[in-house]
Amino acid sequence: MNAKIRLLAPVLIVLATASAGAWWYLHRPAVDDVLTLYGNVDFRQASVPFNGSERITEILVEEGALVEKGQLLARLDTSRLLPQLKQAEAALQAQQAAVQRLQNGTRKEEIAQARASLKSAQADAVNATAQYERSRALGPAAAISRQDMDQAKAAADMAAAKVEVSQNALKLAVVGPRAEDIAQARAQLRGFEAQLALLRQQVADAELRAPFDAVVQSRLMEPGELASPAKPVFSLATTGTKWVRAYVSAPGLSRVRQGQPARIVIDSQPNQALDGWVGFISSVAEFTPKTVQTEDLRTSLVYEVRVFVSDAGNVLRLGMPATVKIRPNGEGAGDVPAR
């Protein structure tokens, strides 16, 4: 009997060990494969100046205001620009009329007038020539002085010259304006159009409009101050694309890929995670920034990761600390926006 027990003891030990191993395998704690990163909320910002130099007359929005793309934010003084604009419009209209007149050529009424002038000059020339001939005929008999004869000859020559002038004027009226004159007038017209377009753009630039949907972060100038392209009037932050700038160590880099879904948690709403996705992974290592809290040493090399966030409720604020949880084996991917 003792011999049988000795023979069965090793078998029972093996069975007990196998049973314990099976129980541990079935009841072993699950391995947490969630990658946790820590970072801060970031989004695109813009410093918005006027595209001109003049006194500010109106500031129409306050800090914290939500503005839409194209919304009017501020105005400049246009009291000196508007008269220049009216003057340029009048000069353009005058030049347009000049070009139109040249293109239309000489009117038939003007040609008829030139012909009538020629006939009048010819008649005057005939009369002046006849008077001169009579003076010459009376010369030998001393019936007319030498001075009167010279005056008669001068009048005949002047009348003949007027005939030639009238003939040339009629030819020009029939031919019409030169092509070079029309080209010159058109070039001047383009110059007036360019000047008018410039003044209109300057008037439009006197209104500062939001370049995108945004939140007014800072109001940097006030009415009465002299604006210029080098002086921002507002600091705007976009209400669209937001992301968490986090850092991952080299060992965890293989567990992150672009488009990978993620969950973002902030301290003010620890039980309401926001959906996100990995949109950018840096290819260059850097030292961990001092503002980032990680479990690794601060002097270790890390890689920047941008986790974009769907923030429909607009709860995220610039610089807010956030915790990012990425499940490396998670399925699905979000759209990756442009960097």
Question: How would you describe the overall organization of this protein?
Answer:
- The chain contains six helices and 13 strands.
- It folds into three domains: 1-30; 31-77 and 226-339, Beta Barrel (Elongation Factor Tu (Ef-tu), domain 3); 84-201, Helix hairpin bin (Helix Hairpins, Orthogonal Bundle).
- Strand 9 (261-266) and strand 10 (269-281) form a beta hairpin.
- The protein is rod-shaped, with a radius of gyration of 47 Å.
- Helix 2 (81-104) runs antiparallel to helix 5 (179-205) and helix 3 (108-138) runs antiparallel to helix 4.
- The longest helix is centred in the middle third of the chain and has 31 residues, at 108-138.
- The protein is α+β, with helices and mostly antiparallel strands and 339 residues long.
Short summary of the structure?
With 339 residues, the protein is of the alpha+beta class.
